[in-house]
Structures are given as structure tokens and as C-alpha cells.
Amino acid sequence: VQLQASGGGLVQAGGSLRLSCEVSGTLFSINAAGWYRQAPGKQRELVATISTAGTTHYSDSAKGRFTISRHNTWKNVDLQMNSLKPEDSAVYYCNAGPAEYYYSGTHPLNYWGQGAQVTVSS
Fold first, then answer.
1. Distance spanning both ends of the chain, measured CA to CA
2. pLDDT category, 73, cuts 50, 70, 90?
């Protein structure tokens, strides 16, 4: 399974970006996905997840501003980010793999993308 993230970039505070993750390979093993981020000097943290049941889970910082979605079964997993803040600046990683039906980010999944840089200027 391979994950390819795209859509990162530089945006002003208050702006929007949409990250996309293209998943390829043995897709039958995928039934959950998520996005994580890692800022310099900080640990990687969960941003959002989506389960095969269609349920979504967001970190407190992402709630109300970010939306995770999937398309074409698990071939594409997107993260729409609105009202961006400078503290959202980080490398964003897509994550996918097998998981429980109502997966809510309790553990990282098996497969990772290469990361997409998001920089929000004040």
C-alpha cells in the first residue's frame, strides 16, 4: 500500500487549504484513515480520522475548522482545512490501514504517506 499526500503550501491566517491523500496498492486491507501532523520540535499528533462506518473524529484544535472525507472507497482521503491559524503550521501525514469498524484514532494505522508541508503566516 502506498500513500501520496498533496495540497500543502503557504497560506495566510484565516485562509483555507485542502490536503489530498491518494492511496494505491492492496486497497482491500484499508478500512480506516486519518491525518496527523508534526510541527518542529513537537511530537506527531492526531488531527482527524474516518472509519469504515463513516464516523469521523477530530482533535480539539481541528474541531469546527477541519473536515476529513474519503472518496472512491479508500482511494482518496482529503482534509479540508478552514480558518487556518499559524499554530496549524506543520508537516501533515496521511495514515491508512485496517482498523475496527468505528475507528476513532485510538492507535496509528499501518501505512503512512510522505508528508505535506503546511505553513500559515500571521
1. 37
2. confident
